[in-house]
Amino acid sequence: MRSRWHRRLVAAALLSLPLASAPAAPRTSPPPAPAQTDSSGAARDSLLDREMRDVAASLRCPVCQNLSILDSPSQLARDMKRVVRDRLAAGQTPDEVRRYFVSRYGEWVLLKPRAAGVSLSVWLLPLVALAGGIAVVWSAVRRWVRQGAAGARGLESGAPGALALDTESLRARRGALRASLKELETEFAAGRLAPADLAALRQRDEAELAGVTEALKRLPKAELEGAGAPQRPVLSRQPGPARHVPPALAWGAGVGAFALVVALSLKGAIVARAPGGTITGVQAGAAAEAAVEESGPLDSLRVTQLEARVRRDSSDQAALIELGHLYLTQRRLKEASQVTARAILLAPDAEGTAEAFAHMGMILWSAGETQAALKSLDKALFLHPDYPEALLYKGIILFAGVHDMRAAEEPLQRYLDVAPPDANTARVRTMLEAARSQAP
Amino acid sequence: MTWRRWAIPVSGVPLLALLAYGLTQDARTIPSPLPGKAAPDFALVTLSGDSVRLRDLAGQVVLVNFWASWCLACRGEHHVLLDAARRYRDQGLRIVGVVYDDSRENASQWMAERGGDWPNGLDLGSHTAIQYGLFGVPETFFVGRDGRIAYKQIGPLDSAVVDRWVPRLLAATPGASNLPTVGESPGYVRTSPDFPTATGTVRRP
């Protein structure tokens, strides 16, 4: 019974698989904001505009994350839209324009991959998975129907043992009936049983024994030979010499191969740290990326909110600072430095601007401007001597960028003193120990 | 019945293989179709008011460097360009800067502060950037004597990359390969005639 439920669950899971793995339907782009369209207003351009929007919606913006050039407000996307429009106006077909962009940026530029070559698998795999799911469910349903019919037949035959369908319980029942018959004889011999009762009870047991024996005979020979085999529903098992090994073997081979490739691809990434080496990576850039946490999808939403806030009120320093930090986590250094600089200019000497200076330090360091970064962080610490973020960044830059272990000790130690324990604490402690062991 | 016991595990194997293959790929690298192709020509007005045309440099090894004054990573690579100009100029290396998404004032000030006497063309409207399939700045294209893009560097240059490519390209003689030279290439793309304005052009019916 458990196994049947198990199969049902597997089938249900497989059925839901194709739905989950089907590619997102080609996104219909929202109507563009009026400010973003090259609206000439003239009726004769409406066809051109429509074609331009169609093509622009199908091209990926190179400087954005999964935005079409139609939806992107970036300068490059605007320029690309103009190129699309000019080429259409010059008489090229939409496909020719798309081919032009593919010749410059590769197939990557197409938001909807072509149904050819390797990209074809993106279109076919969901269909294959759907077909597989349907096949599994269909066969499972057929099996349930057959099992149901077999169970009903067993009931109709009236054999008392028919419900106990597996060899083991049939055998046990046969043994119990034989023992019971022997016991009846003993009881009768001992005078504890009347002859009429003996006949009635013996008849009852012998009838059941005949049924059980008959049921055991009907079972496939292989089942009877496998004495002591684990209990399994008899009717769902089929004879065949190959059936014990293959599924496990196939799964094992597949998972093994997967594990092998995972191991091989991780081998290059996992390196034993040299004594005193940097914690977050060998290169300054890698350390910067590790120090600035990766951005998630929610951040994009927050970025949009903050951008709106800044548009409404350009002197909203808190929004500018947070936006600058989010841009930094998204590696949009140009925008990050722009909004952070604006935040600094709003109140260059206020204590609250320390955060902006700290972020600016990280932005500058990400850009390879180590000395300017340290200056900005010093300014942050001047405004707010115990600002943990500035202490952390300064420590990391001195440690991993400048390799000045002695200078790195002080900000790292002060960070541990002032910052509440968090995910960085352990890393900073290790870094500090390494700095101490390496300092001259 | 037996095939069903096989079907599920066996169909899982190619999926796992696909996943495993994906793990060996770097999702952040986007293959560029440009290396090996003729470098798109461009004619731009430089910061000093002259003009620079890639075609005029046919037969020479050219670094086409896209940059902007707002680009922080470009600052880091500038000394690499200065160094490359110093070391390889006598052997025939030419550097052409293309200023992307920037103003003449800012770019001129930037060059005045940091040095470098190579021509820098202002790419108004990003036409050249799009011709070169630009993702961002800095990007540098190594153009050989045959007028073809030999290598595309995404992100800041370093001396190792320069030293790996420039001597090799300088050593190649223009006639050594049977590739068409810059001026003759039939697939050569010219910038200006490709972008007529919407007004005064023939529209498709």
Straight-line N-to-C gap of chain A: 72 Å
Largest interface: A-B, 61 and 53 residues
Low-confidence stretches of chain B: 175-205
Instruction: Name the overall outline of chain A.
Output: elongated
Q: What is this entry, summarized?
A:
The complex is a heterodimer of chains A (440) and B (205). Chain A has 440 residues and is mainly α. Chain A contains 18 helices and no strands.
How would you explain this protein's 3D organization?
The complex is a heterodimer of chains A (440) and B (205). Chain A has 18 helices and no strands. With 440 residues, chain A is mainly α. Chain B has helices at 2-23, 72-88, 104-114, 127-131, 159-171; strands at 43-45, 51-53, 61-67, 93-100, 120-123, 139-143, 149-154. In chain B, the strands form 2 sheets. Chain B has a 5-stranded mixed β-sheet with strand order 5-4-3-6-7. A two-stranded antiparallel ribbon of chain B has the order 1-2. Chain B is elongated and about 80 Å long. The N and C termini of chain B lie far apart (62 Å).
Keywords:
heterodimer; A: 440 residues; mainly alpha; 18 helices; 0% strand; elongated; disordered N terminus; B: 205 residues; alpha/beta; five-stranded mixed sheet; two-stranded antiparallel ribbon; 5 helices; 7 strands; disordered C terminus
Task: Summarize the SSE layout with pairings.
The complex is a heterodimer of chains A (440) and B (205).
Chain A: H1 2-21, H2 46-57, H3 75-89, H4 94-105, H5 120-157, H6 167-189, H7 195-218, H8 221-225, H9 246-267, H10 284-291, H11 297-312, H12 317-329, H13 333-346, H14 354-366, H15 370-383, H16 388-402, H17 405-418, H18 423-438
Helix pairs in contact in A: 1-5, 2-3, 2-4, 6-7, 10-16, 11-12, 12-13, 12-14, 13-14, 14-15, 14-16, 15-16, 16-17, 17-18
Chain B: H1 2-23, E1 43-45, E2 51-53, E3 61-67, H2 72-88, E4 93-100, H3 104-114, E5 120-123, H4 127-131, E6 139-143, E7 149-154, H5 159-171
Helix pairs in contact in B: 2-5
